[in-house]
Specification:
This protein has 365 residues and is of the alpha/beta class. The chain is built from 13 helices and twelve strands. The protein has two domains: 2-52 and 272-364, Aspartate Aminotransferase, domain 1, CATH 3.90.1150; 58-269, Aspartate Aminotransferase, domain 2 (3-Layer(aba) Sandwich). It is globular and about 55 Å long.
Length: 365
């Protein structure tokens, strides 16, 4: 048996042995067991989820969903609903099991082993993770001191092997929004430019209208943040027709479940309710920013998303704050990144949760 195990282990692709994995947030159940805190008393501000949950129309849609049959591989109902909501032709739209799946599919479509992608560090870890799985090289281009893009450095880093530039706007975890001119500059480099607009609904700035003019632009969106559907894994992409055609060919046939599709369509029909909650989150963010700004030793960064990144005096203080909050059942995010060693990120919660976080933070400071 041991010899057989060695043979099977030797068949694993070299680039996947001891791969640096994606670092997800801790589940509430783990913290509950570790610190003896009931799950319903834990304040979860580490995942950029929607604290108000989904539309009340989602649950009835889920219960009436035909879960005994396979979903439509071409996602016609979903894409038609997105077309009506976005006023974008469905030929330019595709659904997926979260925007993460679309990132993975783009690697499958375009990337050979040893190709390169550009990642503007610090940013969302999924881009570099998918690159490692694909056997691609990641050119990490440091952002400027204020976390804006360094366009000159990006341009200089391009080689014959470079295929894709990934841009998160607003950037996770720093909150920066790219300008239209910045995206156009990148598009004119004639590489595939993927703009991840996971937090678009919290600021309203999008480059999706450029898809008609640029054959190398992909825009990613999700229902995890604004619509409160993170647990159902549903996102979509806006991109040129030819890219849509390829992705429909290579994706798993039934990648969007009937439940996810039903929840998505119900959410689009109740966008007024959801955007009322978005406004609550934006007001909550303003509260957090003002409170953080008033605490000595803390520097928050402006954010176009549903979270705030903030600096502490040093890395040891950041670790202390993170650990003490965690022991109290208040979960925020820390990062294994040298640029962020003294930084923490807090997601906007409900008003009571935001206040509890600030009060606990002030006690620690």
């Amino acid at each position: 048996m041991e010899h057989q195990m060695d043979i099977i282990e030797s068949m694993v692709r070299d680039n996947l042995k001891n791969i640096l994995t994606y670092e997800p947030v801790e589940p509430i159940s783990l913290i509950s067991r570790k610190f003896g805190i009931p799950e319903n008393q834990i304040i979860k501000l580490n995942g950029n989820e929607n604290p108000y949950g989904p539309s009340p129309k989602v649950l009835p849609a889920l219960t009436s969903s035909e879960i005994s049959i396979y979903p439509d591989p071409l996602q016609r109902n979903l894409r038609d609903a997105l077309e009506k909501y976005l006023n974008i032709d469905s030929d330019f739209l595709i659904g997926a099991a979260g925007s993460d799946e679309l990132i993975d599919l783009l690697f499958k479509l375009y990337i050979y082993p040893d190709d390169s992608v550009i990642d503007c560090d610090p940013t969302f870890g999924m881009y570099s993770f998918c690159a490692r799985v694909a056997g691609a090289n990641v050119e990490k281009i440091p952002r400027k001191s204020n976390f804006d893009l360094d366009l000159d450095a990006i341009t200089y880093a391009i080689t014959k092997k470079t295929k894709i530039i990934f841009i998160s706007s607003p950037n996770n975890p720093t909150g920066n929004i790219c300008t239209l001119d910045e995206i156009k500059t990148l598009l004119n480099l004639n590489l595939l430019v993927v703009v991840d607009e996971a937090y678009y609904e919290f600021n309203g700035f999008s480059v999706a209208n450029l898809v008609n003019d640029y054959e190398n632009l992909v825009v990613l969106r999700t229902f995890s943040k604004w619509a409160g559907l993170a647990g159902l894994r549903i996102g979509y992409g806006i991109m040129p027709k030819n890219i849509i055609s390829h992705l429909l060919d290579i994706k798993s046939p039934y990648n969007v479940s009937t439940t996810a599709e039903s929840a998505c369509i119900a959410s689009l029909k109740d966008s007024k309710f959801l955007f009322e909650n978005v406004q609550k989150i934006i007001k909550g963010k303003e509260f957090l920013f003002n409170q953080l700004s008033s605490i000595s030793g803390i520097k928050p960064y402006p954010s176009g998303a549903n979270f705030i990144l903030f600096d502490l005096p040093n890395s040891s203080k950041a670790a202390e704050v993170y650990d003490k909050l965690r022991s109290k059942g208040i979960l925020i995010r820390k990062f294994n990144n040298s640029r962020l060693e003294k930084s923490l990120r807090v997601s906007v919660g409900t008003d009571p949760d935001n206040t509890s976080f600030i009060n606990a933070l002030m006690d620690i400071m």
